[in-house]
């Protein structure tokens, strides 16, 4: 895990009013990044976020190969320079030699949030027995929450819907900006409100 301090926005100052929250959408795939197949992961993340979020947000999309340093640099750049409050990755979470997204995530984060991976695997196990093969995790870099999803486009909705109720409050706590969800789609939980 990274030991240096990363930009933290004072709580309550991130993306207030009309400022949209920036959300990084990162597809990690050798073949999608080479154009061997069309990326379906990034658009699937955007489709789920569009159903979930009713407050202003903008997507910052990237399609990159399974290279640890490249993934780490992309995540750090989206968090520190682009000012993303949330980054969602897809791909590279499995056991194959080139699957290194969790390692790159841990490399750039100040603290890990293991509950996200635990819940996503639990929910995914209802769908596929191979859910245990995903090492997907989540962590905080400065004022940005990074969440890994598996590469299968069909996994994206299952996993994001499971953890999203906790994401707006997590973003509040790290000064990442306010996200409001459509209560008919997802009841986000803010203790005390
Ligand atoms: N971004 C994507 N867009 C469309 N289909 C995908 C994407 N990522 C994965 N898939 C599909 O899901 C399958 C399993 O995904 P996985 O991430 O294990 O791929 P992979 O074998 O690591 O290869 P690559 O990194 O080249 O995508 C792939 O073989 C492909 O059919
Ligand atoms: N919900 C869900 N989770 C899933 C899957 C899936 O199809 N749906 N595929 C599994 C499989 S087969 C693998 S190998 C791991 C890792 O996938 P990745 O390397 O593409 O990230 O995610 C697992 N988690």
Automatic annotation (TrEMBL):
Record keywords, A-Z: ATP-binding, Molybdenum cofactor biosynthesis, Nucleotide-binding, Nucleotidyltransferase, Transferase
Reactions catalysed according to its record: molybdopterin + ATP + H(+) = adenylyl-molybdopterin + diphosphate
PROSITE patterns registered for this protein in UniProt: MOCF_BIOSYNTHESIS_1
SUPFAM superfamilies given in the database record: Molybdenum cofactor biosynthesis proteins
Record keyword Secreted present: no
InterPro entries attached to this UniProt entry: MoaB/Mog-like_dom_sf, MoaB/Mog_dom, MoCF_biosynth_CS, MPT_Adenylyltrnsfr/MoaC-Rel
Enzyme Commission identifier(s): 2.7.7.75
Residue ranges annotated for the MoaB/Mog domain, each copy included: 24-170
Statement: the UniProt record of this protein carries the keyword Methyltransferase: no
Biological-process GO terms, alphabetical: Mo-molybdopterin cofactor biosynthetic process
GO terms for MF: ATP binding; molybdopterin adenylyltransferase activity
Pathway stated in the Swiss-Prot or TrEMBL entry: Cofactor biosynthesis; molybdopterin biosynthesis
NCBIfam families, per database record: molyb_syn (TIGR00177), PRK09417.1 (NF006932)
PANTHER family from the UniProt entry: MOLYBDENUM COFACTOR BIOSYNTHESIS (PTHR43764), MOLYBDOPTERIN MOLYBDOTRANSFERASE (PTHR43764:SF1)
Function text: Catalyzes the adenylation of molybdopterin as part of the biosynthesis of the molybdenum-cofactor.
Protein family according to the UniProt entry: Belongs to the MoaB/Mog family.
Name of this chain's protein: Molybdopterin adenylyltransferase
